[in-house]
Amino acid sequence: MTSIETQLTELPAWKALGAHYKKINDLHLRKLFADDPKRGERMTVDAIGIYLDYSKHRITDETVGLLMQLAKEAGLQARIDAMFRGEKINVTENRAVLHVALRTPKGQSIIVDGQDVMSQVQSVLDKMTDFSTRVRSGEWKGYTGKPIRNVVNIGIGGSDLGPVMAYEALRHYCKRDMTFRFISNIDGTDFAEATYDLDSAETLFIISSKTFTTLETMTNAHAAREWALKSLKHPDAIARHFVAVSTNAEAVAKFGIDTANMFEFWDWVGGRYSMDSAIGISTMIAIGPDNFRAMLNGFHQMDEHFRTAPFERNLPVLMGLLGIWYNNFFDAQTIAVLPYEQYLKRFPAYLQQLTMESNGKHVTLAGGKVNYQTGPIYWGEPGTNGQHSFYQLIHQGTKLIPCDFIAFIKPLNPLGRHHDLLLANVLAQAEALAFGKTSEEVRNEGTPEWLTPHRTFVGNRPSSTILMDELTPETLGKLIALYEHCVFTQGAIWGIDSFDQWGVELGKALAMRIIAELEQEIDHHLKHDSSTNTLIKRYLRER
Ligand code: F6P
Prior knowledge:
- The structure is a single chain.
- With 543 residues, the protein is an alpha/beta fold.
- Helix content is 48%, strand content 10%.
- It has helices spanning 3-10, 12-24, 29-35, 39-42, 61-73, 76-85, 117-137, 161-169, 188-195, 215-232, 238-241, 249-255, 281-287, 289-308, 315-329, 347-359, 391-396, 418-435, 439-444, 452-455, 473-494, 505-519, 530-542, and strands at 44-47, 50-53, 111-112, 115-116, 150-154, 179-183, 203-208, 242-246, 262-264, 334-339, 377-379, 403-408, 463-468.
- It has a 6-stranded mixed sheet, sandwiched between helices. The chain has a 5-stranded parallel sheet with strand order 6-5-7-8-9, with helices on both faces.
- The longest helix has 22 residues, at 473-494.
- It starts with a helix and ends with a helix.
- Bound molecules: 6-O-phosphono-beta-D-fructofuranose (F6P).
- 6-O-phosphono-beta-D-fructofuranose (F6P) binds next to loops.
């Protein structure tokens, strides 16, 4: 074991939490609420327009105190300060981690490698503003002189999930006479379905890739070029119908996109933290530059809150620590994120990359193997749909699944009783999970004895409720940054590098080898394991 590993589990707060867990893990939320009638008012934080109710967690004041102590002993504040200062805290890639700079208002400076990154950020934002205004107004014309009506983002992972999620989340604010599509998968179906009804003369492709080498994106980008040239004919059309977002100007030029039509970002923006960089150009075209800046402002408010609020009132710190409490002491494997807002239907998918690519690590910063659990599995679906599907397991299954319920006070589409019904459901779910229904209550309803165990809800199933006023670009920014910093908090405490992603490399390399074998029909000298060899042979034989 390295010293870093020893450090976390040897920390006094960690040990105290272990002992404390043994004392309170049987304690029921029914009792906690009965003993403290003000618990539901007390265990809340109301900051920057987010109301977090964390009272329905299996915690006492002592738990919260110990978690705060853990954050202090693990040096969380120093890590936060190092990130905001632009230190190279992504150690395995020797990079700063500065997505916070993307939303820092004009007039401040952050220096990385002797350069003020803020002036670069502002100049790209200005370029994005100019471009998106021209596209939205119809001033930017396609090759045949028609205005752009369709925008197709081609990217994958962080170069796709953020733009898709933001487009869906902010549809209410989008330019409705334009069509937005997103192509990510190497499966040709994705390309075919996204383009089948589009007129190339009115279509703009945004090739979004930090590296501009990603197999899926480059393959789809080439398909898009062929698709466009089939009808537009002349290579000069490319300049009117293709723009790029990347850190790799050389590869962009090599692909044939004029670097004047390239929106830059930098190696200190991780892919999964890039939706508010130039990767958000499709978002800006969809919602307009003012709304995009309002979104950045929301991110920034959360950044400032995270940087300055005391830990016990700090939303991402609290949520991060509660995640650690269940992950490391209750052995919970997953966290369900359940937005009661249809527009947030892609939010759980977005969070999966953010949380799992960040904290799915088993090695500490110092390179030793961790001797504790790290990132949990995040998953979810919008409510109320999930209630008629997987909630059964959350209520009565054998697994402990802490839930994040997300709801908005004001609906964007008021319709009859809908919003009251929606809100009643989210509140009811959290209540049912926490307090359940005892066998006695079930019997008193006249339930026969044999059916009673089936109808009993043990309760004591924890959840947070995140209540915000209305889904706007600004509140979306706050919500995303909340989870970004929650991930940061957890990674800092686990002592891992939340900003690299080496785990994606092996599969990519093996795929390259198999691609060659499939394309050259090499089935005689296959050197894989017998399972992979047989599968390759079968595919080659039957395709
Ligand atoms: O393979 C994983 C990954 O590198 C992600 O981290 C990233 O968001 C995605 O691929 C796309 O990468 P790029 O933007 O360089 O095409």
